[in-house]
Structures are given as C-alpha cells and as structure tokens.
Amino acid sequence: MAVTDVHPPRSSAGPKRPLREPPGPVGSPFVGVLPALRRDPIQLFLDAWRAHGDVVRLPLAGGRHGYLLAHPDHVRHVLQENHANYRKDPRSNEKLKETLGEGLLTAEGEHWLSQRRLMQPAFHRQRVAAFGTLMTERTLAMLERWEPHARTGAPLDVASEMMRLTFEIIGRAMFGADLRDLAPTVARALAVGLEHTMRRIQAYPDLPPWLPLPDNLRFRRALRDLDQVVYRVIEGRRAVTDAPDDLLSLLLHARDESSGACMDDRQLRDEVMTILLAGHETTAVALTWTWYLLSRHPEVRRRLQAELSAVLGDRPPTVEDLAHLPYTHMVVQEAMRLYPPAWVISRVPLADDAVDGFRLPAGQVVFLSPYVTHRHPAFWENPEGFDPERFAPERSAGRPRYAYFPFGGGPRLCIGNSFALQEAQLILATIARQYQLDLVPGHPVALHPLITLRPRYGMLMTVRRWC
To answer: Which residues partner with 348 through β-bridges?
Structure first.
C-alpha cells in the first residue's frame, strides 16, 4: 500500500507554534493498541504509519503512549543529534537484562561508555579482517555436511544452519573457544529466551518473573543452559597459559580505573553472554532472509553467481576479494533493508522533546523501526521490491544517512557492524559460488518479530550444486 500523505519534515525557521499531539489510532479502552502490538507489531507499525504519517501516537496499556517516528531526519535526531536526552526503554531493557545482564547491549551511562572503550580494539578493522580465513573455513566445513543433502535432495533448515555457523565463528573469533558441540543447546535455549523476553515486554499486567509459571520455569532452565556455556568459556580460558589476544583476553585483564579491580565473574558473564548471543543471532537472521530472497528472485541470484564466478573462479573468497565483489555487498545490504534483523529500536526521552512540531513527552517510549523507515517511498523506489542495485553509488547519492540504519546509529552504533558485514559477505560468497538454495514448495514463510526478526517456521530449503 503506497503512502501518499507523507512529507519531509517542515523547517523549524520562523515563529514557533505550539507543539501538537501527533495523530494516531484510538485503540481500545484501558489496553490501547496492546492487543495488536502482541499479535503483529510490525503490521501495527506499518498500518499506523500509512494511515497517520511520519509521527504517530500509539496508545498503550495503563495510560502510557508510544511514539513511532518513521522519517530519517527524526531517526537522526533521536540516535545522533539529541542522543544525550534519550536512554534505552527501561521496560524492555530490564527484560533483556534477565538474560544478558549488564552487558554492552543493555548498559547505560558511564558503565556502557567504559565497556565500549574497552571492547572497541577487538573490533578494529584490521583485527576483523584477520578473521576472514576463519569465516570461510567454517563455512566450507558446513558445506561438507551439506553434501548428502545436495546428492539426495533432502531439505535442511537454513535458519538453523546459519545459526550454528555464526555461533561457531563468534566463539572462535572473540573467545578462542570451539563451541561446535554446544550449538544445538544454545539454539534451543536462545529460542526459549527470546520468546519469553518478548512476551514479558508485551505483558500487561507485568507479572513478576519469580512466579512459578510454566513460561518462567522454561526460561529459567534455558538460562541455566546458557550460563553453563558462558561459564565454560570463561573457565576454559582461565585454564590456558598461552591464551590468544582476543576479546576475552581484554575482558579478563581489564581493570577498573579507580579501584584497579578486575571484572568479577558476573561482569565477565554478562559481557561474554552479550557478545556471544548478539554476535551470532543477527548475522544468521540476515543470511537466512538473504537465501529466501535469492530463492524468490532467480535473476538476482544469476547475477550474483556470475560475479562470484568471474572474480573467484573455483576458489573460496578472501577478505581482499570483497572490494571486487560489489554486487555481493549490495545483495547483503538489500536483504537487510527488507528484513533488518534488529527491526525496532526503542528509546525514552529524559526531558520533553519535539520533532516536526509534534511533542514527545518525557518518560514515554519512542519507537524507531528500520523495517518501516526502510520502506519509506520518499527515499526508496518500489520499496517492497528486492533490488540490490539501489545501493549502487549513483542511486545512493543524496539518500539520507538514516534512511537505512540496520545497525542503529549515533554513539550506540552496533560495535560489531564491520564484523557482521564481512562475515555475511564471506559466507554468502562461499556458499553461492557452489550451491543454489531453493525454498521447499509449500513451506510457510512468515515474520516472527522477537528481539530479532526471525522466520517463524524456519527456512526449509533444498541445496544443489550449480558448478
């Protein structure tokens, strides 16, 4: 459905007018739009934006309100220009902390800044580039497991395969740990944790997590499984004398500037848990949707394969090859435009704010949705189409920075964005130069918007060699 009543933000020059309340749906008494938010939050956001424009007021339960901002200028204002006035939404952030603790993703203020500075060297471009061989080697090992499927035509769940692969890579790269045997345990526990966290964020009333409800009990078991993996990583490193110079080494040797104390086990656990889970989930989700889109668009797949054949021949890709694979990069970018793994970002203003003449009250949640903004027709021609060439330099010229923000932006830009992009391109190139993946006919494909944008039913596909 095309948006016909959306306009660029008006200039703030001239006499100031009184701030207005944004338009939006009325919702139901007491619960507002919460039932729709629980049922299908992405559809709610899309419908509200299409009906009411770039600033939408959403009535929530308990007299609270949410404010959806869709224009790139508004996104820039919240994430960059006025970021000091915004913090993460306490309600959703506290639920995330039940799994991640006070890690880099959930921390605020000075603690976040200190941890960000500590970890930044592990994600320096030169260090990330050094992981290229690891990324291709683990992908090639996965393809060996795929050989029986290629011979027999037996389908496999590409969503699970991508999760397992990126989990192995992040474990090796950041923590020097071989976690291959633990991947199934983590996948099961993470799925339970994400479902539980999303239900808790959307719950009204918000029941305490200590109640012995079945969902809470399942979550506690899943969290115990995740903790066992993380503490195993930490203890394994402490037992090694000749440890690699990686992120875990930085964490283990870090000292507080004032007290000189090292991180305790809980602090280490929170940071390792955050990087281990967030560092593989988003890339795996992005790749899963990429394979789905390529299966639906054979003309794009043919062009991708032609580029890979011309540049790589019959050898696997290297980091140095990426500069010569522009179409491969554009395929990843376009897949993340249509299916951004981090599909929503929530912030809360500390003091009253305003965009485009509309009031944003302090203490109310502000939603920024890459899924919505990436479909804004003022900046994306045929926004629902899969067109990697829209990221070519000549077509990208003049496009606002925050028309596309799959990794967030401002000071809290994802620390692992370079790692994730390199990983996604190398995995895509390694697989696509040999194999063609096709969605199993009749397999249902639906969005499952948890903390990340997963496919609800996995992604069952057949694989066959094309060369």
So the answer is: 87
Q: Which two tokens stand for residue 401?
A: 């920075």
pLDDT digits (tens, 9 = 90+) for 340-365: 999 999 999 999 999 999 999 999 99
Residue 211 makes CB contacts below 8 A (sequence gap 6+) with none
Contacts 24+ apart (CB under 8 A), 178-184: 179/229, 179/233, 182/229, 182/232
CA distances from 415 to 121, 124, 214, 419 (A): 10, 10, 36, 9
Q: Which of 261, 276, 222, 267 is nearest to 102 (CA)?
A: 267
For strands 353-355 and 435-439, give the pairing: unpaired
DSSP per-residue codes, 63-121: G-EEEEE-SHHHHHIIIIITGGGEEE-HHHHHHHHHHH-S-TTT--HHHHHHHHHHHGG
Amino acid letter for position 43 = Q
How confident is the model at residue 467, as a pLDDT?
64
pLDDT one-digit tens code per residue, 144-187 = 999 999 999 999 999 999 999 999 999 999 999 999 999 999 99
* Ramachandran category for residue 94: left, alpha or beta (phi over 0 → left; psi -120 to 50 → alpha): alpha
Which residues lie across from 461 on neighbouring strands? 156, 439
Whole-structure pTM over 0.70, yes or no?
yes
Architecture per CATH, domain 34-465, reads as: Orthogonal Bundle (1.10)
Spatial CA neighbour of 45 closest among 262, 311, 343: 343
Domain borders along the chain are 34-465
Residue pair 432/404 in contact (Cβ under 8 Å)? The answer is no
